[in-house]
Amino acid sequence: MKAARITADGLYRAALGGAVALVFVVVALIVFEAARGSGLSIRTFGLGFLTSTAWDPVSEKFGALPYIYGTVVSSALALLLAVPLGIGSAVYLAEIAPRRVGAIVSFVIELLAAIPSIVYGVWGFFVLAPWLRTAIEPWLIAHVGFVPLFRGYPFGIGMLNAAIVLSIMVVPTIVSISREVLLSTPRSLREAALALGATPAEAIGVALDAARPGILGAVILALGRALGETMAVTMVIGNTNRISASLLDPAATMASIIANEFTEATTPLYISSLIEIALVLFAITIVVNGAARVLVYWATGGRRSAAALA
Amino acid sequence: MSRPALTRAAGHINRRAIWSRIVIAACYGAGAIVVLPLALIVWHLLAKGLPALSLSFFLDMPKPVGDPGGGMANAIVGTLILVGLGALFAVPVGVGAGVYLAEFGRGRFSSLVRYTADLLSGVPSIVVGVAAYGLVVLPMGGFSALAGGVALGILMLPTIIRSTEEMVRLVPQSYREAALALGAPRWKVTQQVVIPAARAGIVTASMLAVARAAGETAPLLFTALGNRFWSTALTKPIASLPVFVFDYARAPYDDWNRQAWTGALVLVMMVTGISAVLRLTVRRVAQR
Prior knowledge:
The complex is a heterodimer. By secondary structure, chain A is an all-alpha fold. Chain A has helices at 8-37, 39-45, 65-96, 99-112, 117-144, 159-184, 187-195, 200-210, 212-228, 231-236, 254-261, 268-299; strands at 55-56, 61-62. Chain A has twelve helices and two strands, in the order ααββαααααααααα. A two-stranded antiparallel ribbon of chain A has the order 1-2. In chain A, β1 (55-56) and β2 form a beta hairpin. In chain A, α5 crosses α6, α7 runs antiparallel to α8 and α11 packs antiparallel against α12 (268-299). The longest helix of chain A has 32 residues, at 65-96. By secondary structure, chain B is an all-alpha fold. The longest helix of chain B is centred in the first third of the chain and has 47 residues, at 3-49. Classes of the chains: A mainly alpha, B mainly alpha. At the A-B interface, α1, α3, α4, α5 and α6 of A face α1, α3, α4, α5 and α6 of B.
């Protein structure tokens, strides 16, 4: 048996390995803290926490349902707006625009993805909200108010505003990854389609078909961002724990309730309930992001790491 | 072929051609609609933020309510301190892990590391804030700059890891082979040949992650908290630009709202300006 020898190579690898270990430690600590902090709330409310709509700090009754609802609905609406527009502009940038224009526009779009979310919040609060309140929402109430989705009062602040701001924030993710995936599909696909007599749009359809897993990954990645988005939503959603069918009414998301009430939470159970909401949010985003990354990796053959975009 | 059949065939082709035009026009439209709100945001930032932008915004302390003027000097310094603390933790760890992945990273373990880094980049920043609250604020018995720095550091980490890995991978294999052929041990090859060759890329990519973290608000709300006064103590609550913008935007005072716009503009200039310069540099490095 050879005796273990300490070599310079071994030491160097150990140092780098230490950095890797720290990455695992960080993730483990986040999970541990979220689990430990929510222990009291989990023991007190059990699974009922997820289905209760109570939120009463005075009598210490807490339930997460309105916030789960708010997070899911605002993100779904944001995707409803962002996905068709995002894929459409990705097609434009990858297939139609001159290469130079495509490169420049996507560079600008990627830069805009770096704008801090608080800035989107400020814009949604001071620009979009008054506009919705005075122009869009009164029109919706007057003309499509018979649909419960558009019933109520024009607050300006609420689910609709949050969905619009979220869609503006996630659209760059969809555009830049979808464009990348489209560019990585073989040119010959379009050429073959055109040679068989397909119209330009039909040829693009063939390319889109080949790019489908990657685009799906981009959409799920955008969903992950929308689910966890905090500051912009906190500023424009109105923060109430009522579940309302109307998009014009204020609502709240898991992230926004934590941002709003964490520093005001005085009792241990109150804080613990907020941490449990963070735990639930954490679990949801882990699942969503994991799925997205696998899809993007698979579709681009590992050429592009989704982390570089996030 | 009879005439009606011919016209029918022509009509079919025509319909497909028209449909094709419509689809392509819709793509143009989508592109325009996507760019429009982003352009609007930039325009409003400039229109509403520029008027109050002056030297005193950077040099003066915030004034009490009703007292016009004043700046956010403490918040700008606070953001620099918080970001510096975060980078102090995230850059060595992230670069170390990234170099490990690029140079020694084969097999299932490395895939696990990559996957973990990717998952970490997907954790909502507010959740990182909650974790930092439990890890640092509770044991220390109060909000502190240190807690905010830890939260920001965690957020920087995944980007630094993955971009360092990409940059180190760009170093040509022949560099390593040449160094090994000259008799250099493996660690010297990495430390003295590969890392220097990738240095420019690593530095710019790390700074990109650091700049991005400077705009984060959510993880600071209940770690660094905020502070209206001058403080550089690491164990005390500290002001930061994003939290100031948040508080000033929600305050019911017009003057504060105006300053919130200016704060937002300065924040965007800091974050996006640095990102723009760095991204162009990274691109150049990557192309070389």
